[in-house]
Write a structure and sequence with these properties.
The chain is mainly alpha-helical and 395 residues long. It contains 17 helices and no strands. Helix 1 runs antiparallel to helix 5, helix 5 runs parallel beside helix 7 and helix 14 packs antiparallel against helix 17.
Length: 395
């Protein structure tokens, strides 16, 4: 097939797969072992993870997961030293996926949370390797050094779940569309990140006269929300009440849209939603110009990057979802040093923020999403065919 990745395939033997899985599992156990010896409840409170643990504690006891006063008491009882609580701003669409945290202490819950994040990272790596045709390459291993993913692991943030959902979608959307749609459930935690992709998904489904992907997502969402409402029937009302009371939109978030609002009129919240409009319009046009030639693992990755740049609300950790695009850019770059040098500079710049533990709301991260987009456009210039996924069906 013209435009496929030219790397030579490897023999995908059961022994090879088992050996690779064992290495990853041993590495994860080693990391978790170190954490188990060095962390306590107070350390857990220093991570964003604690907001999810506290919410699950509330939900497991049929209480309000958005009750700021109750959340603060829980976090203070575990050693939180900050003057304000850490509260999740995610809607109640997938609480049950981590409900076990509601029955565990803060330290034990953190170990479980980290194990989940590491497992999801490893699974996403394996899936992306399949999506790219099981090449004889180790580029996919870079996922464990991708700065936004490292930031996710350090903070206990959600971006890795978005990465896994998108990776599974890229793998399954042709052969298992219902499962592909269900895999996107986690992305509903921050839907504003994916609005241009949603526009294209709807147009793509209409054109193909197949709504299995959307149906899979809706079904998973209904089941998930139903389970949450079974534990707390007022969850949605409580969510909206919390969003109104916390005035989250008044806080500076390191996105271009928010920076534009603060530069023009900090009180005009509507300004930060303006970039989404042309982004969605462009996505619709971009899809219309490709038509039958549309590939989610090619053109779809560019839409994903544009959505990350134009979103009104996101943090550096959310950019973990961009790794499939960066990996595709690596394959397109091949051995061209001119393509790898700017990537190395961007990578190193992002690592400064990770190593220095720069706070996620810092303006330092304003440049990162545009930089990933710029590099992808540079690395794939005239070479879009080189990143066409050629996943083989599983045996």
């Amino acid at each position: 097939m013209a435009g496929e990745i030219k790397s030579a395939p490897v023999k995908d033997s059961p022994g090879r797969r088992l050996g690779a899985a064992a290495i990853i599992a041993l590495g994860a156990c080693f990391v978790l072992g170190i954490y188990a010896l060095t962390i306590d409840d107070k350390n857990a409170c220093g991570r964003d993870y604690i907001q999810y643990w506290a919410a699950e504690q509330q939900l497991a006891h049929h209480a309000d997961p958005y009750d700021i006063a109750a959340i603060y008491r829980l976090e203070k009882s575990r050693g939180l030293e900050e003057d304000s609580p850490k509260v999740t701003f995610s809607p109640p669409v997938a609480f049950e996926l981590a409900l076990l945290l509601g029955y565990m202490g803060a330290k034990a819950g953190l170990l479980l949370w980290l194990a989940m994040l590491l497992a999801c990272t490893g699974l996403a790596m394996w899936v992306l390797w399949i999506v790219h045709g099981r090449p004889d390459s180790r580029l996919h291993v870079f996922v464990f050094g991708f700065p936004p993913i490292l930031a996710c692991l350090m903070a206990g943030q959600l971006g890795i779940f978005f990465l896994l959902g998108v990776s599974l979608f890229l793998w399954l959307h042709k052969t298992r569309p219902w499962l592909a749609g269900a895999a996107l459930l986690g992305c509903a935690l921050k839907p504003h990140l994916f609005l241009p992709c949603v526009v294209v998904l709807v147009l793509w489904s209409v054109r193909r006269r197949s709504f299995a992907v959307i149906g899979g997502f809706v079904l998973a969402l209904v089941v998930s929300c139903g389970l949450t409402l079974g534990l707390d029937g007022q969850a949605w009302q409580q969510y909206f009440d919390m969003m109104r009371s916390t005035r989250v939109l008044d806080v500076f978030i390191p996105t271009l849209a928010v920076a534009m609002r603060f530069a023009i009129n900090p009180a005009a919240h509507w300004i930060e939603f303006v970039p989404e409009v042309p982004a969605c319009a462009w996505a619709a046009w971009y899809y219309a110009t490709r038509g039958e030639g549309w590939q989610w693992g090619r053109e779809g990755l560019l839409v994903l990057l544009v959505g990350a740049v134009c979103t009104p609300y996101s943090f550096f950790t959310d950019q973990a979802v961009l790794f499939p695009a960066i990996l595709a850019g690596m394959y397109a770059a091949g051995k061209d040093v001119r393509d790898w040098v700017p990537l190395g500079l961007i990578w190193a710049g992002c690592m400064v923020g990770v190593v220095a533990a720069i706070q996620l709301p810092s303006p330092f991260y304003l440049w990162t999403a545009p930089a990933w987009l710029a590099w992808y456009l540079y690395a794939t210039r005239g070479k879009m065919g080189a990143i066409t996924p050629v996943a083989r069906p599983s045996n």
